[in-house]
Amino acid sequence: MPARLAQQPIHVSVPTSNSFDALAGDKDTAAQDDLDERVALALRLIDAVLDEDDRLVRMLVLEEKVDAWVQDQQGWTALHAAAYTGNVEHIKLLLRKSNAVWAMPDNLGCTAGDIAFSMNHDRAYEELLAEGIRAEMLRSVLESAASSSDAEDPSAMAVDAEPSTSDAPKLSTASDNATFLSSRLIFTADSRGQAVALDAEGNGVMMNWEEGIMRRTVEALAREGGWEGRKGRRREELVSEEERGEREGLKVLNVGFGLGIIDTHLQSYAPTTHLIIEPHPDVLSFARQNGWFDKPGVRFYEGTWKQWMGDLESGTEEYEGWDAVYFDTYSENYADLHRFFELLPDILSTSPSARFSFFHGLGATSRLLYDIYTSVSEMHLREIGLKTEWEEVDVAQGVEGRWESTGEAGEGERTKGEGEKKYWREEMVGRYRLPVCRLEM
Known about the structure:
Layout: H1 3-7, H2 17-50, H3 54-63, H4 78-85, H5 88-97, H6 112-118, H7 122-152, H8 154-161, H9 177-181, E1 186-189, E2 195-198, E3 204-207, H10 211-225, H11 235-243, E4 251-255, H12 261-267, E5 273-277, H13 281-289, E6 298-301, H14 305-314, E7 324-327, H15 334-341, H16 344-347, E8 355-358, H17 367-383, E9 386-393, H18 426-429, E10 432-439
Parallel strand pairs: 4-5, 4-7, 5-6, 7-8
Antiparallel strand pairs: 1-2, 2-3, 9-10
Helix pairs in contact: 2-3, 2-4, 3-5, 4-5, 4-6, 5-7, 6-7, 7-17, 10-12
Pfam family, one: Ank_2
GO molecular function, one term: protein arginine N5-methyltransferase activity
Protein name: Arginine methyl transferase
């Protein structure tokens, strides 16, 4: 500031309380008018995109800098509108030059990519898919960097270790693993008679309709691993053959017991060693009650896979070469699964027949998100030397709503499907994609 301005006398008039109210009112009115104008321009942009008025669209995006994330009454943004028309140039413009959000859902839960897919606009869908893949790969890099930084910074770890206060927001059992593990589970049946395990919020932790997925997964692992011939054989005979060197042993690892569905299918091949990693006390109690702790060759690690990984590093647990590894946890996100991927080269057998699979429910409410996470997971697996092949599974098998039923059955007061939580939007996502992964030698 020039010295002469600092030397000038300053005259201050103190306003009355009424003056403050007037000023505040003027500011509120001005702010509301500005907001109304911005919303009006955003809605105008949606209309311009639907009309494919290229000149107006470009003017609103490039000159007016319109907020492209604003939604209309049905929840559509300008990007949804561009996906509806299939105008690839408008999609590119909105993604590159505006603040459009590629993953924003409308009132029906549809992203712009879902709209493009439903309209058979292939080029528009591919553009939105590529954007989503880029964004998710970048997010994975940033999350990995943040995780490494926190691990190296003791002060950051100390902050995380502090107990939460009573003012902290309540965490969900479906998205926070610690909250889930400290909550109670209910083992019951849904309104269609399917066995389910529900968390404290009524979310399906494991549902019996997944049986088809689990059976097909084990069949694929057995086929690819060359141990189909074990199915139905007496365990004693297989052990005798293994001891005589006539047959290789079979070591299987499952992360997440649930209702024990996949472990039941794995047991039909009489594995030599069957390790199950399961941290939830209610699930462990359920497993004990159903005789799993007494099955030959079965061992439970009563903790999380991250704790198991720490025990591997400390030497408490032994590194073994597993012939088949399956991963299906609850209340963890893709970052957790990605971290488990990085462990695979150290725990899979060096045999070319060793295989890995996981429950691919990633983004299961959106065709776009499901396609994105199919691609992202395959790319991350490729980075660590695993090749992934996908099989499609028609789990519904013609049974309407079979994948939707995850809530507890009522006492006759509930109509079919009413009040139950949708888990899988089959009409949007399509068939389940079963991953079978192997190390490339």
